[in-house]
Amino acid sequence: MARWAQAHGAAWAGAVRERARAAAVALTAAAAVLPAVAEAQEPQRAEAATAGSLPAVESVGVAPLPGSGLPRDRIPGNPRTLSAPDLARDGRLIGGGLTETLERTSASVTRNDTGGNPFQPDVQIRGFSASPLLGTPQGIAVYQNGVRINEAFGDTVQWDLIPDIAIRDIDVTGSNPLFGLNAVGGAVALRMRTGFDFQGAEIDLSGGSYGRRALGLHAGKQVGNVAAYFAVEGLDDDGYRRFSPSRVRRLYGDLGWQGERATLNLSIGHGSNSLSGNGPAPVELLRQGRREVFTYPDQTRNRLLTLQARGTYALTDALSLQATAYIREFRQRTTNGDLADVEACEDDETAGLLCLDDGPPLLGPGRAPLSAGILGGAPPGAVNRTRTNSTGVGGSAQAVYDAPVFGMPLRAVVGASYDRGNTEFSGTSEFGAITPSRSVTAFGIILDQPDAGIAPVRLRSTNDYVGLYGSATLDVLPRVSATVGGRWNYADIELRDRIGTALNGRHDFSRFNPAAGVTWRFVDSATAYFGYSEANRAPSPAELSCADPLLPCLLGAFFLADPPLRQVVSRTFEAGVRGAVGTERLGLNGRLRWNLGLFRTGLEDDILLVQSDIQGRGFFQNAGDTRRQGIEAGLSWRNDRLAFGLDYALIDATFRTGQRLPSPNNPFADEDGAILVERGDRIPGIPRHRIRFDAEWRPIPPWSLGGNVIYNSGQYLRGDEGNQLGKLDGYALVNLRTSLRVGPGVELYGLVRNLFDKRFASFGTLYELGTAESLGLGLSDPRTVTPGLPRTFFGGVRVVF
């Protein structure tokens, strides 16, 4: 491990050093922009001293900025809060982390390995996605310290860039318009550590199966009314599939000042990651070996620098102001090796040349047709490359009032936000040949035939988002609280083609989304709630640039047309009961928590990415109305030595509009390559039933044993919106963990993932069999899936100073 740290430390340090000077200048500028305000701290959430205890949670944020928290029993929904110990319980870097903790602790959350990389999952909450992949409809708003981190170009969420070790706590809520665009299905709000809430130092050193090795370090120090915090993480992983290595480097720092009525914090975040995720492979190929990949390479390089200044000022005991300003620079490079829709020309006039599938001859340098001999008998392939450079700036401010009105307790928040994103996107497809190992060797020939839907693209997009929001919760009776609120969203999106004019366009969307609800604490230990909310999702620049079926784009890569799309509007109802009670009367020293709720979210003009009849290409379109509805139920009990939790979620996700959708790779497609989708057909990629069971036992104070079972039922494949093919099989995974304190501040821990080595897949789609024939693999099944993680072992040591 020492040799690994020495070998990789210099490279990582160089990546940070080159931006250090710019970071310092920008951080100072951000501080100057923010008024001399700082926050009247909301009550700190107590962080448990050991991994086996529960955090004491007093409130849940109802808006992105800190300071907007409400007691849980006054929120007309079913929010969840996770603490830093929840993240550490399964190992932050090697077997836990943010997204796995979300899945382990809530049956409403699941992870789909859409791209095949463990650090870039598609996270679903109530059937809505927060995904790193362009092309996935994004239905979750994600915030870090009050800053929206859905990326400017495609509203994607790059989970790999979030430093797990620096997270203080997390709120996961259902649909709430106060969180702005994309909160149609819910929101995730991350609050990061500062030197005021974390003092001392901790080193986390770990490793395990498939070459996983990781190092995390963070430290905090307070001197008087000034505090500093710093965190760094590094991880290397060879991947459980062939040709799938990953490297993760993350940094986070915070410098804070706290006065009698105010605080001011300046923070910096940096990430530089290289991730290989070779995606789905044909089911017939995976029968030969679960580590197999179809074509490669498939690599994503992410780089992030973010600077933030935030704070509030308490004007009076009842009224406080909060504000934040940020600069966010995101860079992404992707390289994808794929099959090419190219074959030997069949006409006598073009014999000996290469032709695009059912199209004209393939042109090379000087617009000359390419000879079939260039391939040397190898199958045709393509290397698709993209570059995304986004810079985001913005800020938000709010006022919070907390005092009785006419003798009735009132807590109100009003605020405004502005976010601007500028993105330069470019993409090319380079012709090549597929090797015997199914990698793609490029020839240096850029495909440029717009009439066939294949051409380089250079696009500049600018998006301006404005939001005005407010909410008020009034205790109309001693045990009854009523909430009303809403948010007005405005989105202005401008597209400029940097090569021609085909992509030029300007779109604007606006909407006011209301919310209302009531809670009733019918006994001291239980609360009933009912809520209604609306939210909207404006089409992203990526979706608006790829909405023409005649000019499809490479999935997650190219954008070649600009027809209009309508914004998505959600309407959510939810109702339920929840409570917590001590169990001493039953002779058990502990606390029991429970919840039972129903929800229904209907989407109007939902946007889907559908397949084109050109291999690897697709386009976005409004697909009528869809609906997600279901049940959430949970039961947990904990004392000092024993704990268990059981969660169940039913997610019924269906199309509500009958229609024909393009799906040319589906064996049931008609002669036009379309399938019939009827009202009530299930939306692919969303398991209907989910169960989470977690247990932990502490036989002696230094030692803990625990584990969990995660069950997801079957799901339909993408491309089978008509539900005519069989489902992916459901699966249950068993995971174990243990930790042992071997001395003051020293803890050893171990993890086993997928104990029984279950063969499973959490994502599947369809591919074009005709194009794959050139590989000579004898494939006859169009289904392709991403294999799940096999049995793995991890271990580590955590040292606290």
UniProtKB/TrEMBL annotation:
UniProt-listed Gene3D superfamilies: TonB-dependent receptor, beta-barrel domain (2.40.170.20), TonB-dependent receptor, plug domain (2.170.130.10)
The UniProt record lists the keyword Membrane: yes
Localization (cell): Cell outer membrane
Region called Disordered, residue ranges: 65-89
Record's keyword terms, sorted: Cell outer membrane, Membrane, Receptor, TonB box, Transmembrane, Transmembrane beta strand, Transport
Domain TonB-dependent receptor plug residue range list: 98-187
Annotated ranges, domain TonB-dependent receptor-like beta-barrel: 249-755
Record membrane topology: Multi-pass membrane protein
Annotated InterPro entries: Beta-barrel_TonB, Beta-barrel_TonB_sf, Plug_dom, Plug_dom_sf, TonB-dep_rcpt-like
Mitochondrion listed as a keyword: no
SUPFAM superfamilies reported for this sequence: Porins
Family recorded in the similarity comment: Belongs to the TonB-dependent receptor family.
Protein name: TonB-dependent receptor
Organism: Craurococcus roseus
Organism phylogeny: Bacteria, Pseudomonadati, Pseudomonadota, Alphaproteobacteria, Acetobacterales
